[in-house]
Amino acid sequence: MTRSLAATTFATVVLLSSSFASAQAPSGKVSVVTSFAKDVTDPFKRAFEKAVPGVTLDVQNRNTNAAVKLIEETRSNNQIDLMWASAPDAFEVLKGKTLLMKYSPQATGIPDKVGSFPINDKDGFYFGFAASGYGIMWNERYARANKLPDPKEWQDLAKPVFFDHVAIAAPSRSGTTHLTVETILQGEGWDKGWRTLKEMSGNFRQVMDRSFGVPEGVNSGQVGVGIVIDFFAFSAQAANFPVKFVYPSVTTVVPANIGIVANAPNAAGAKAFVDFVLSPAGQEVLLEPTIRRLPVNADIYAKAPKDYPNPFKDPQFQKMISFDVDKSEARTAVVDTLFDQIVTFQLDGLKAATKSIHDAEAALAKKDNAKARALVTEARDLVAAMPVSETQASSEELRAAFTGGKQKGARQSELEQQWSSFARERYAQAKTKADEALKLAR
Amino acid sequence: MGGFALFHLPTIGQLRRSATPGQFALALAIFIFLILFLVIPVGTVIYVAFTERGTGSFTLVNFQDFFSNDLFMRSLWNSIWVSAMTVVWASVIALPLAYLTTRFEFRGAVLIQTLGFLPLVMPPFVGAVALQMLFGRNGTFNLLLDDTFGFKIPFMEGLSGVVFVQALHYFPFILVNLSTSLRNIDRSMEEAAQNLGCSGFRLFRRVVFPLAMPGFVAGASLVFVKVFDDLATPLLLNVKEMLAPQAYLRVTSIGIADPMGYVISVMLIVGSVLVVWLSAQALKGKDYATVQRGGGGLSKRKLKPLEGLMAYSVVVFLLALVLMPHFGLLLMSFATVWSFSPLPDAFTLSHYGRVFDDSWVYVKNTLIYASMAAGIDVVIGTAIAYLMLRTKLIGRHWLDWLATAALAIPGVVIGIGYLRTFYDISLPGGAPLASFWMIIVLALAIRRLPYALRACVAALQQVSVSLEEAAENMGATKARTVRRIVVPLMAGGILAGFVTSFSTAAVELSATLMLVQANADAPLAYGIYVFMQSAAGRGAGAALGVVAVVFVGLCAFITHLIVERSQRSKGFES
Amino acid sequence: MTQSLAVASREDAKLATADVTIHKVNVSYGSNHVLKDVDLQIRAGEFFAFLGPSGCGKTTLLRLIAGFNVATSGEVRIGGKDVSDLPPWKRDVGMVFQSYALWPHMTVAENVAFGLEERRMPRAEINTRVATALGMVGLSHLAARRPSQLSGGQQQRVAVARTIAIHPKVLLLDEPLSNLDAQMRVQVRRELRDLQQRLGITTIFVTHDQEEANTICDRIAVMKDGVVQQVGAPMDVYEHPVNLFVASFLGTANIIEGKVVQDGGRRVFEMGGALRLPVPEGAVLPPGARLVFRPQHASLAAPDSASPALKGVVKHREFLGATVRYEVEVGTSSVVVDAPFQTGASLYSAGDAVGLTLPLSSIHWLAD
Predict the structure, then answer these.
(1) Which of B127, B153, C175, C265 is the most exposed, fewest CB within 10 Å of its CB?
(2) Shortest CB distance from B467 goes to which of C93, C98, C101?
(3) Which of C68, C73, C78, C103 is the mutation pick for testing B, counting most B CBs within 10 A?
(4) Which domains occur in chain A, in start order?
């Protein structure tokens, strides 16, 4: 591994020096703002500084939101060269505010899509450098103690046995979770998708406000099961935590991205780093055990250990319909806010209704009762009911409420109040009906 | 009526008579400092709360939205309830510790004061994880309980979980301020009560505690406001339905142009200032300056053997409880894997090896930032306390309210505000002012100023005015009197304020995270944050957390030693 | 008295001292009128007392001289110079606080040296002055102690030493004896008087205790409700009180209500119980006047005695050592009469009927 790394590094140096022969040679400090952990950035820093002598990579760690805010607030006197983070929507925001610089990387051998998701921004403002798939991570000791079966599919998480054992990050707080939610909504359709989401959500122990909160909870055994992005699980396994991970048969892989900040003080260095990250040498760094992300260069998988997931070949990544980026973009804020208002902040009501439904169904399984069954169906429909239709979600009017449009209209807080009371009332009604059904079934 | 009084502009003559030119200049300087480093930066961020969407014109409709939104109202009541209950429980912990260590000949009182203070020094993220590992649903205690008795205690669930953690975390505010007050009570007050047949707990309840009231109220109001405005603990327990987390979640979500986060920030500020104002009202007209005739400090008594046993049991129990998170942190820093088990699987030293190279620069930066920030805080805190309590300067309370408002402003708002305000100002050489590390110091100073201020106010309240008048009578000007009499007599309180500001600034993350512009300028908290983003970094983060705690604890311990020594040399103990 | 003289004479045993003039001073806090048109002349070298019950404004007046309070109107002159606009630290007025206000963080010597240091004196001179001041109050051996290690009386003396060390033009004492026990009080007040005599310093003493004021002061100003009632030597004020308040505040006074009626061209004071007393020719009676006399000025005799007397009944008798105090019911009033005690003299007992004789010269006719 190290030897092959050295070999490719050498190759890259040759490649880089030739490609920069005409351009200004990169040198000096390259400032990168990233949400990636030290475990990820350190190997890249070492490899890059070795590959391009005379350049130092200055890594500033920030969560994605803070990084976006920083670039936004400091645009007038920008000191940052690169933004390096997972969530594509963060890059969309930066791009929308013309805070990114257009570039055509030198790298070759990177396809257009990974799974159903386009790797690079179609306008050339940011570039996918690694793929990550969503899946289910669980703590073996926790599962053993609580007699949980191994989950395999998303639907498994909606089963009564997982009640109060599952955690997720709020889509409004985690770009990658947002993409997962959006994938489900696009894959299953708006109404069915929300139904699935809410059935799963009824089992949630917590909706976390940080992406890393979920794997940390699973690692420490405070929650049993987490819906997480794969590398969290892989790096936890690499650190010997007793956790397991599975890609459900339908999943999506999303790219983690890098982009050059507009007016970068060291544009040459920034370009060099982008090229390095996308080069085979850079791609190979992703295979390091503490990183464990999926390269976007399909050739690198030849050097990967056995059982390393390959989004270009493994069947579960191919099943998803193609992902409509524009549709997702148009309703981002509405989807996130909906999730917060009807799931995150109504979790108690939702869980109470879900528990009652589970109990009623358990009772019905022993002793059927038509009237009770009808009540349970009603209860499930009440839980699944949505205050906003798919068309409304993408409507200009709702978008304006969230993006601070110029015209007057409903304010975000008013909409939130409407949606949350909608959900709260229906969850309460659903619980009443399910409790009624339980009485009948006994 | 009160509203009119606030806006009634004083005449020049009234202003002139209200204070000396020097005091006036001092007040003006502090005012400008606060405007420059608090009001303007924060204003550039939260003015959104008062603007109408789309048009940008002034409106209060957003506040109407706040009051008609169930979630926000529920959050408001939750915040109030949690804050009040935390004050109660924090008092339950702090009272015995403060009383026993200041009133009795107690071995290791300094150690207790220092250890009891450590909970304030809870590094971000790792502290949270450590708490979960011990008290969480599947933490050490609950796993053992479940194994042995088949039940669990939800220490860390919901609002009562927040109260539990906050009480453990913030009781030192009460402890520190109360201890200072107790030390300043004239022994004759107590003796008079004993002489009149009052002793034991009644003595404490009827005489000692009422006399220590300024310190208690200072600590309690600080705890209330701090809990009211704290977002780290509720978020760590995943309680989002409180005001501060709501504000934080909204302010930090990407791409949402929503004024409500700032509306909530404004509500937090109003609430905090209100509490401070109320506590000032509660103490109004009560002259608690008791150190008059040179004799300070309660007499220290020897405990009878049985009493001693009981007292030590209480102290050990409380200390064990409040130091649990640090114990957890220590375990984590040595743990290979710790997951769903009462104790780690195995132990290793490798995490310390990993952080050893990095931590030196973090420790150095932290020492510089936190001590400078705390230094600024006690200077300004003492000055504001003096202007407030010793002059009739019109508008002096505005200084207090302004400084206190900083408590309620989410760190991230200050961070963004600083970037906005200071990024366009270039340093000689072209780099923006906001990237200069001194900006981090100023942000920390502003964030921690309320702590130092409350401590200074309590300390000055206990210095008898006649001691100052005597100095003036002897020919010392106001300024000289402050230097030679007021400051030395306030020294205990000032140092308490310094330690509080210093220690909390040393582990502050939210504002610094926005402002750290280079790894070489980063403090400890940032280093921990960086490690704690991955599973493999957990142990290393914990190791760095231990470094932070030990380092801050040592600083606090040394300061306490100095306080004790200076108190003793002043004859506060004999 | 000029400034240069004051400086030149600092080294003398007698301090350069100054007179104090308080001219038409008013102090009010909002609607609360604390001092009303106070006019006082305190002579240089005089031991002067502000005497009055608590709340009479005496401490306010003292603090006004020290510069801690500001007059709403009027002026304070020290040595002829208007000091109304001078801050406390420029007045050269030494004050001993009721609480002593010793700084707990300084030793006795440091406390005493403080004012001298503030005057930027050379260290050697400071040391001499501190030694002298402590010597004067007899505390040289305690120079290194902290105030908390001293007794109340010692603390009081340190406070005095601290004040006189700066050689103030005027010495102000704010109830300096109130924190001392009775024996100490007598001793310390003598010491204070001695010290004042030795230094020849104008001293103003605030007290509510007439005995303290009478024993050590040259003159007193009796105050009530922010108004100076009477100024004079203690004996004069005692002998010739100007109103009922002064009469009763200084010593014991019998006050009998009644009204003046005309009886055949003569004025007669008619008291409750149909008792009458002729008003001497030429006596000036203010409106609403009452009959006032000191207990020792009346004498008791057997009721059948020939001389004109008021008839009364003894209610109580107290033996006070040098005197015997009788409480006698006269008409509807109760009065106190002190008779000198002599061995073998016959005493009246409770229930005895007596005749009360008053020399007309010792009777005062006073109103509020």
Answers:
(1) C265
(2) C101
(3) C103
(4) 2-132+255-312 (3.40.190.10), 133-251+324-441 (3.40.190.10)
Report yes or no: B298 at the A interface, CB cutoff 8 Å: no
Summarize pLDDT for B456-478 with one digit per residue, the tens.
888 888 788 889 999 999 989 88
C149 part of contact set with chain B, CB < 8 Å: yes
**pLDDT > 70? residue A66:** yes
Please tell me which chains touch C, using 3 or more CB pairs under 8 Å as the contact test. Answer: B
The class (CATH top level) of C254-366 is mainly beta
- Helix (H) or strand (E) holding B263, with range, is helix B260-283
Percent of chain C with pLDDT over 70: 94
Question: Residue for token digits 């509080």?
Answer: B500
- The percent helix, strand, coil of chain C (3-state, each to 5) is 30, 35, 40
Window 383-442 of B, Cβ < 8 Å to A: 412, 415-416, 419-420, 423-424, 426, 431-432, 434-435
Neighbours of A72 (CB within 10 A): 16
Who's near C18: CB < 8 A, 6+ residues apart?
C1, C6, C44, C78, C79, C80, C169, C170, C202
What are the C-alpha distances in Å from C199 to residues B516, C13, C17, C66, C96? 68, 6, 9, 19, 16
DSSP bridge partners of B194: none
How far apart CA C132 and CA C138 sit, in angstroms, is: 10
Options 3.10.180.10, 3.40.30.10, 3.40.50.300, 3.40.309.10; CATH of C3-241: 3.40.50.300
In CATH terms, the fold of domain B15-50+73-284+306-569 is: MetI-like fold (1.10.3720)
Instruction: Return d(Cα A218, Cα A205) in angstroms, integer.
Output: 11
ipTM of the complex: 0.83
pLDDT in the model for residue C181: 82
What does the alpha-carbon distance between residue B224 and residue B177 come to, in Å, rounded to a whole number? 14
Distance CA A174, CA A90 (A): 10
User: Is pLDDT at B286 greater than 70 in this prediction?
Assistant: no
CB atoms < 10 A from the CB of C236, how many?
13
Q: Which two tokens stand for residue B7?
A: 């806006």
DSSP3 helix / strand / coil % (chain B, rounded to 5): 75, 0, 25
Q: How far B134 CA lies from chain C's nearest CA (Å)?
A: 46
- Check CB contact of B344 with chain A, cutoff 8 Å: no
Alpha-carbon distance B425 to A77, whole Å?
9
Instruction: Give the C-alpha separation, C40 to C268, whole Å.
Output: 38
Tokens in use for A304? 């990967």
Chain C: residue whose CA lies nearest to B567: C105
Strand order in the sheet with C258-263: C258-263, C266-271, C275-278
Highest mean pLDDT among A175-184, A190-199, C80-89: A190-199
What size, in residues, is chain C? 368
Establish if B253 touches chain A: CB-CB under 8 angstroms. yes
- Enter the pTM of the model: 0.79
Contacts of B106 (CB under 8 A, 6+ apart): B100, B112, B300, B303, B311, B315
pLDDT tens per residue, range C265-278: 888 888 877 778 88
Dist CA A278 CA A274 (whole Å): 6
- Split at pLDDT 50, 70, 90, the class of C10 is very low
